[in-house]
Amino acid sequence: MSLIPDISELLARARADLRMGLPVVLTGEEGESVLAVAAETLSPARLADLRVLGTPVIAVTGRRAETLKARAYDGDLARILIPDFADLSWLQAVADPSDDLDRPMKGPLTTERQGSAALHRLAIALTKSARLLPASVVVAVTDGRGLAATHGLTCIDHARAAPHLGERSPLREVAAARLPMEVSEAGRLHVFRPEDGGEEHYAVEIGRPDRDKPVLARLHSACFTGDLMGSLKCDCGPQLRGALAQMGEEGSGVLLYLNQEGRGIGLANKMRAYFLQDQGFDTVEANHRLGFEDDERDFRLGSDILKSLGFKAVRLLTNNPAKIAMMERTGIAVTERVPLKVGQTAHNRGYLATKAAKSGHML
Ligand SMILES: Nc1nc2c(ncn2[C@@H]2O[C@H](COP(=O)(O)OP(=O)(O)OP(=O)(O)O)[C@@H](O)[C@H]2O)c(=O)[nH]1
Ligand SMILES: [Zn+2]
């Protein structure tokens, strides 16, 4: 029946639940099931409830485990045993590196090596896509489906969810209108919304670019601090304005504004990363200490939008080779890379050097 939510709708619901601090039920292939809550949003009352149901563990990514010196027997993640004395602040200190330097001794931490980590991996993937810290408190339960039905919890089946996790929900254009701008009076803004109701993304068209010729294009990732606040820590604001100005001069172009704040980790996590940067870690190390990869963005969104606007080839304004490679892989030809070198400041010199050294950016 069409009234029943499908798996991508259930996943979207699970992300919203985790952000509220609600547990979700995850069920596995062998009939096993767990209850999972994001460490960041867990309340003391719910922690007590989880302890009534069983013996919870806290699952963190391999990246975070490295910093915590916890053995990651599962490779990309570690299931850390929670000592009886541990309270919510202990769990949050495992999840959140903010006070790593003040409280370096969380351990020694013992990690689980028996049994499957598949549901823990799913729990972490969900917290990440909910833009929360990638850490989940997980407890095994006997009848997950029954528990979900009785308590009105979202229930996700691992086998059904797996093919959808690395996938993005299809985008649909929901509205477009004329937008006269400083750089060009012939501006037009298109709003794209994913079918699962997630984050919207925008395309700003300048002029009426010919769909049969390579269009001057920029894939810009949202940066509240740089785009709007004039932050000196990165080069995003000048890049955004520089790209629009160039399109205005040429009288034609398309700028995609992708809501992938903080290279896909969200603004709260980006500010946690900035806090770590103030302690001396670089932009890549800070992401790793938080449990994230260097870059969690999905640039395929960009080619989805370009294709839906009818473009086949771009002259891409970027210094990031990963953007070019992804465009080519997903069927948008990059006929030219147009460098975008603006906004270097004394504050962002180290940031730009790290991107060049560790993320392959062209200086
Ligand atoms: N996690 C994290 N994100 C950051 C940091 N500084 C800036 N960002 C984010 O990095 C992204 C930069 O986006 P872009 O300028 O589109 O991408 P880029 O990879 O630098 O590539 P080009 O500018 O095209 O060369 C934005 O989402 C910013 O919010 C940081 O220190 N940590
Ligand atoms: Zn920025």
From TrEMBL:
Keywords carried by this UniProt record: GTP-binding, Hydrolase, Metal-binding, Nucleotide-binding, Riboflavin biosynthesis, Zinc
GO MF annotations, alphabetized: GTP binding; GTP cyclohydrolase II activity; zinc ion binding
UniProt keyword annotation of Nucleotide-binding present: yes
Gene Ontology CC: cytosol
InterPro entries: GTP_cyclohydro_II, RibA, RibA-like_sf
Free-text comment on the cofactor: Binds 1 zinc ion per subunit.
Annotated residues for binding of GTP: 218-222, 239, 261-263, 283, 318, 323
Enzyme Commission no: 3.5.4.25
GO BP terms, alphabetized: riboflavin biosynthetic process
Keyword Metal-binding: yes
Superkingdom of the organism of origin: Bacteria
Family annotation (CDD domains): GTP_cyclohydro2
Needed co-factor(s): Zn(2+)
Domain GTP cyclohydrolase II stretches: 174-339
Binding site for Zn(2+): 223, 234, 236
Role played: Catalyzes the conversion of GTP to 2,5-diamino-6-ribosylamino-4(3H)-pyrimidinone 5'-phosphate (DARP), formate and pyrophosphate.
NCBIfam families assigned to the protein according to its UniProt record, in alphabetical order: PRK00393.1, ribA
PANTHER family, per database record: 3,4-DIHYDROXY-2-BUTANONE 4-PHOSPHATE SYNTHASE, GTP CYCLOHYDROLASE II-RELATED
Family assignment from sequence similarity: Belongs to the GTP cyclohydrolase II family.
Protein name: GTP cyclohydrolase-2
Organism, as annotated: Ruegeria marina
